[in-house]
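The records we work with from here on pair a chain with its fold. Here is one such record, which you should read through line by line:
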Amino acid sequence: MSGILYIVATPIGNLEDLSPRAVNVLKEVDLIAAEDTRRTAILLRAYEISTSMTAYHEHSDERCTRGLVDQLVAGDSIALVSDAGTPAISDPGYRLVRAVQRAGVQVVPLPGACAAIAALSCSGVASDHFFFEGFLPAKAGARRHRLEELSALGYTIVIYEAPHRLYDTLAAMLVVFGAGREVALARELTKTFETVKRAPLGELVSWVREDSNQERGEIVLIVGSEQDRAANSITPEIAELLTALAQSYPARKAAKLLSPVVDIRTSELYDFLLEQKRPKS
């Protein structure tokens, strides 16, 4: 009788986020296939789990995959874990899942932490429809091209980014999406220096440029859709400038003059001015 391949979500930072069910499975399986056995060993020691491990990552070849499948067919059960979060999400684990399914072996998911979902849940950006991009291309030209393709989407975009590429990616987004597009930066979720900041893209780029600490750790970017760009993209600085212009020009003219400078629609700026003039109850 075949064994079972368990897809086990592990913590993205705080080790206490491992579920009791996951602990039991990791203790009971015959083998743990880990993306990085050194990182997984830290988690196993914390929960006094002594199950044997083997490496399974993006460089694992077909022979490695076949060996794991053969073990499962022979009756062993295996837990697949990634460095952090849910396996097969921006992770090579899907290759093993497909091979196991072809062999007729049962695959059982153990849900848990996922950086994309955690970031989306605390971003404050609309989440009823979203597109998971994962990592953008590393080269500048390809990254810019991909962002241009994504700009046509009418819903929220979830992007993973490496810390050393964060500023370059935000700068490219600024060119493609414009300064007013709402973006949330979620960094080091569940860890000591957890940071979540949502702001118009122009403001976010300045914030990262002025604080190099934001270019450290694990990063998720949540990009709001063009349709969702609303009055909250009007920062206090823009509001002050708009109000000053409105003292010299009619409201619609002031909004039209400022619109190309701050990359916010004339109608949004005009509506903001009208709202300021409305009597407060």
